[in-house]
Please model this.
Amino acid sequence: MKEWFRYEYGFVNIDAENLYFTNTGNWSEVKGLKEKGIQQQNSFRQFRMKIIPFIIIVLIVFLIIFPIDSGKVKFSLIAGLVLLAISARNYLKREIGAKFKLPISKIEHITLIGEVATIVFQDGEEKSTEQILESLDRKGIQLLETLQKSTME
Model:
């Protein structure tokens, strides 16, 4: 069994043993994933996701602090940078999502309320952790309901 579904920050791939949280939903991406709680290497992609908003915020602060002769120009630049920040967040939203694998055997319980699921599980360090999945598609809700029933048995 190999299935996948979409949620707000990426995709969840499911096979007989694990849930894989990825950004793309591509099965080749799941090979190097480790359990949540086990240290993973930082990638340039993660660095980029942190530096882009920082640069935009610095530019906004720079425009607020340093004088520009025309108030309309200053307002336009600040409004443009705020819109750029919002657009960048929406464009890069899938890159923000967590990337890890979750053994099905470590799931304690799944709670589904509408399009939101909360999965409580033991992470790689044997700590109880929860992962909230929002904006689930219909397929994801059905797959999690099936998984919920199988973990309750």
Summary: The chain has four helices and seven strands. The chain has two domains: 3-40+99-152, 44-95.
